[in-house]
Amino acid sequence: MRIILYVVWALFVAAAAFAMVHAARKTRRQEQLMAVWPKAQATVTGSVPGWTSGGGGSSRSRRFFPTYQFSDSAGTLYTGKSEISRAAEPVPGSLIEVAYNPDNPNESLQVSPVPRTTLGCLVPFFAVFALALFWFISIFPLD
C-alpha cells in the first residue's frame, strides 16, 4: 500500500515540476520580449470577468482581466486584453503600461513584475510541501 502512496507522491511532484518549468519558460519568454518591445501607456477600456481555479483548497473567487487600448509609434490605435488578473474591477480610463510587438502591434503584454515574484514564492513552497508529504507517507500507519 505504501508503494502506491509513493507513486502518487512522485506523480504529484513530477506534475508540479512540469507546471513550474512551463510557467518559468513562459514568464522568461515574455520578459525577453517585453525587454526589446516598445512600451506604451494604455487606457483601460473595461474588463473581462473570470474565476480563480480554487486550487489548493481555496474557494473560487471572481477576478477581472483588464481590456485596454493603446497607440503605436505611428499613432494607430490597437486593443488588447491583459493576462494579469485583478481582484477589483479596473476603472475604465485608468492607465497601465504595455509592451507591444513592433512587427504586429495586435500582440501586446501588460508590463508587470508580479508573475516572476509569484513564481519565485511558489518554487520553495512546493519543495517544502513535497518534502512534508514524503515524510508524512513514511510515518503514515497502514495497519
Secondary structure topology:
Elements: H1 2-36, E1 39-51, E2 62-71, E3 77-81, E4 95-100, E5 108-110, H2 114-139
Antiparallel strand pairs: 1-2, 1-4, 2-3, 4-5
Helix pairs in contact: 1-2
How would you sum up this structure, described in words?
Residues 40-108 form the DUF3592 domain. Residues 1-19 form the signal peptide. Keywords: Membrane, Signal, Transmembrane, Transmembrane helix. The chain crosses the membrane at residues 122-142. The chain has 143 residues and is of the alpha+beta class. The chain has 2 domains: 1-36 and 116-143; 38-51 and 60-112, OB fold (Dihydrolipoamide Acetyltransferase, E2P) (Beta Barrel), CATH 2.40.50. 43% of the residues lie in helices and 26% in strands. The protein has helices spanning 2-36, 114-139, and strands at 39-51, 62-71, 77-81, 95-100, 108-110. It has a 5-stranded antiparallel sheet with strand order 3-2-1-4-5. A hairpin with a 7-residue loop joins strand 4 and strand 5. The protein is elongated. The N and C termini lie close together (10 Å).
